[in-house]
Amino acid sequence: MARIGLKNFRYGILDEETETYAEVKTPGKAVDCKVSLDLNSAELYADDGLAESDYTFKKGTVSITVDEDDDQTYSDLTGHEMSEAGEIIRKDTDIAPYVGFGRIITKVVNGVYKYKVEFLSKVKFKDALPDEKTKGESVEFTTTTLEGTVLKLEDGTWSKTQTFATFNEAVEYLEGLFEKTA
Question: What is the model's pTM?
Fold first, then answer.
């Protein structure tokens, strides 16, 4: 299996009491996504060997890069106020909401395209400002990367994944995850 593409970032603000998501939105076109996990790591040795081990999910980190740093999306994901005039107002008391976040990975398996949905049930993004450069002899594109912490829902769910034969089935499944309760 070779992963050859990434698209269709989606997010929805999580209502923690009902474990449901608000309207599904697109933060921008997908450029990059990295997920790293922090797992519990405990081992018990007995009778001169490993007797028990625990490598369960503790938390994770997701880093996403999008093509457009849309102010409304940034405001939604970081918990900052957006004025009617379109100004982002950052305060030290702002709290980012929890969101569900998903994407579709295009794969080739034995010469056949498949589409894998990867969904993170509860993520909290934090502030990030892009690096900027002046235009020199050649134009260089820069993008914005947002980083978030991956947590688990009350029932322990932190991720859902499923692979589909068609892209349309994958999109339908991904958007359906935001309509279901956890």
Answer: 0.91
Q: 3-state secondary structure string, 80-108?
A: CEECCCCCEECCCCCCCCEEEEEEEEEEE
Q: Residue 156 corresponds to which tokens in the numbers above?
A: 């322990």
Q: Report, in angstroms and rounded to the nearest whole number, the Rg of the chain calculated over CA atoms.
A: 19
**10 Å Cβ neighbour count for 178?**
21
Tell me the pLDDT tens digit for each residue of 43-65.
999 999 999 999 999 999 999 99
- Residue 172 · residue 178 · CB < 8 Å: no
- Which residue's entry shows tokens 């070779």? 2
| Cβ neighbours, 10 Å, residue 17 | 7
Torsion angle, alpha carbons of 90, 98, 61, 121, to 10: -160
Q: What is the pLDDT of residues 27-41, one digit of tens each?
A: 999 999 999 999 999
**Which residues 6+ apart lie within 8 Å of 174 measured at CB?**
8, 10, 102, 103, 104, 117, 119
The domain segmentation of the chain, as residue ranges, is 2-131+143-177
Calpha distance 168→46 (Å, rounded): 51
From 121, 117, 114, select the one nearest 103 (Cα to Cα): 117
Q: Is 132 helix (H, G, I), strand (E, B) or coil?
A: coil
